[in-house]
Write a structure and sequence with these properties.
The structure is a homodimer of 342-residue chains. With 342 residues, chain A is of the alpha/beta class. The first copy, chain A, has 13 helices and twelve strands. The first copy, chain A, has three domains: 45 residues, lambda repressor-like DNA-binding domains (434 Repressor (Amino-terminal Domain)); 111 residues, Rossmann fold (3-Layer(aba) Sandwich); 141 residues, Rossmann fold (3-Layer(aba) Sandwich), CATH 3.40.50.2300. The interface between A and B is large, with 58 and 58 residues. Chain A binds a DNA duplex (16 and 16 nucleotides) through helix 2 and helix 4.
Chain lengths: 342, 342
DNA sequence: TTGTATGCGTTATCAT
DNA sequence: ATGATAACGCATACAA
């Protein structure tokens, strides 16, 4: 009945129901007893008015926050997007809303800008997707007063920010062992950028090689994209001693596969190629890609779970690991006889 | 110096600077003249205290909102994720923050739950990624009082919600004409779910076929995933009259390509396969995928631009189209001679 | 069990 | 140009 586009507030509900402000508030929060009669009247008024609580006002007065910020370098790439999806899913189930803040680069300006705008909103806590340097820096820039957890690409130092992480060192180790068991004398590695030394896929790869007494070839550094994989693999295609290549992700793997194939090296007859992640396209690849599956959605869910636990229990939760699994498909095989005997 | 984990407010700044509340507010908003002397003192206090304005309190009293909600069916799939990225980028540049609300299904419960939780926060406006039925329904569920714009997969009816959209009918048309020009007698279509009749990729495909006087084969319906493409294409692989297949997206295309190849039909020698989107993996495919590129990031940026314009000008903006481009690569070719003469 | 009064951090209005 | 004060919508301590 208001003249303007008036958004109904708790006062309007109270008026319509013929009760006081506080009664309405109590009915809505449900934390105090209210007689059935009044409760019914209030609920009717709420429905009729289409009343929606104002979260801003709520958090202002109660200090209770219902939004969590997710800081991420990007939202497109598979791992990031899937992690975000998992976080959102868990957050929504728990009654939280997620605010997404992409941090363009590790430039302190970009970081503090992202942090400042996000923190000006009432946050219950923050999650940073720490798959890269930007994530590491963002983590460092967040105030200690805010509950912060991380979705990490690899285990972080203990005593640090609580985090859920991918046991990707284990994945790299398993994939390398598998390749070695096929008869390859060593395995090369086409790597994504590392966030931490002595951890991650590359670390597991190295460990497997050392244990087997195989030579550890120099790591070939790439970025994340298929083109980067293609370009970086070029320098390897002419070396016939390379018979197995472990790639930091599936995109690198398909880029590398193309590079080899264009040079007349067949996959897997001449070179075995193994990826990481198991993106949806991997199993449709020709040949279907052998890869280390990482469940990013689960990682996201767990990460939010950590934050939720922290908020509920009031103390920092224990870290949580998600284990990758090797999916053997068509892009890997024993080295061809001719090479083996060569 | 506060005993507790006290978050500094405008009062603390005022006290430290030795000025009144209002002066601090004025310095921060910058909308009123303040003497340089006081301004300097305030700025020093702000820096020293690490003061951050409380957006909740601001929007509560001023009615000015700085967050926009994005409703989407999902955040993983390429088109959605890239659109989100574009939206976020533009929003951040304009000083807005984005809240992501994924809507699980078209179930009214899921929709109203998502809408309610998002709308309980102070929103400047909302954006719905309307690539599917869920998006269409969500759009319908949003209150008319809120500025809402859409990022659409195809042009919507006029007079409707302002939207930026992919001219994908044009893309379907161009791709089909291209295939026809290669000498294929007709083109089959493996479709993603349609949101609207008489629009979209399928509509353009149909138009090109009709114009050329070619027969219009029944549409083969698929979902979005590579496996769906693979499964749905199975029934086509044994039909030698099929020499060209236009797929609703790249994932379908690679699934279909595998299905054909497993059945001994070579790509492109026996069947030409064309995708849609130009996802990063497309150019690395073997053979590299001919596809219709759609710039989702740009779509996202434009969509936010629409909302921004609406908010600034106070009136609904005009729709905005993003044009796809056909990228010819290796997966398409003229039909083989044997078939042509058969 | 219900109602009244106070205040959360900020901007806007009104004085000075 | 600057300061005092009233709201914004809601939760809660306190009074009834």
């Amino acid at each position: 009945m208001s003249l303007d586009h008036h958004v109904p507030g708790i006062v309007d509900v109270a008026a319509k129901a013929g009760v006081s402000l506080s009664t309405v508030s109590r009915v809505l929060s449900g934390r105090t007893r209210v007689s059935d009669a009044l409760r019914a009247k209030v609920e009717a008024a709420v429905a009729e008015l289409g009343y929606r609580p104002n979260a801003a006002a709520q958090s202002l007065v109660s200090g209770r926050r219902s939004t969590v910020a997710v800081f991420a370098r990007n939202t497109i790439r598979y791992g990031y997007a899937a992690t975000l999806q998992g976080i959102e899913e868990a957050a929504r189930a728990a009654g939280y809303v997620v605010l997404i803040a992409v941090v363009e680069s590790a430039d302190p300006d970009d970081i503090s800008r992202a942090v400042n705008t996000a923190l000006s909103h009432p946050l219950a806590g923050a999650i940073v997707i720490e798959f890269d340097k930007v994530g590491v820096e963002t983590l460092a820039a967040l105030p200690p007063s805010l509950p912060v957890v991380a979705a990490a690409g690899a285990r972080r130092a203990a005593g640090d920010t609580p985090h859920a992480f991918l046991e990707d060192a284990a994945g790299g180790y398993e994939a390398t062992r598998y390749l070695l068991s096929l008869g390859h004398s060593t395995v090369h590695h086409l790597a994504i950028p590392a966030t931490r030394p002595r951890s991650g896929r590359a670390w597991g790869w190295r460990k497997a090689l050392l244990e087997a007494g195989a030579t550890v070839p120099p790591i070939v550094q790439a970025s994340y994209s298929p083109t980067s994989g293609y370009d970086s693999a070029q320098k390897l295609t002419s070396d016939p001693s390379i018979t197995a290549l472990l790639c930091g992700n599936d995109e690198l793997a398909i880029g590398a596969a193309r590079a080899f194939q264009e040079n007349g090296r067949r996959v897997p007859e001449d070179v075995s190629i193994v990826g990481f992640d198991d993106q949806p396209f991997a199993r449709m690849w020709m040949p279907a890609l052998t890869t280390v599956r990482q469940d990013f959605v689960d990682l996201g869910r767990r990460t939010f779970g950590l934050l939720e636990e922290w908020l509920a229990q009031g103390r920092r939760p224990a870290d949580s690991a998600v284990t990758p699994t090797l999916i053997v498909r068509e892009s890997s095989a024993a080295p061809s006889q001719e090479r083996a005997t060569a």
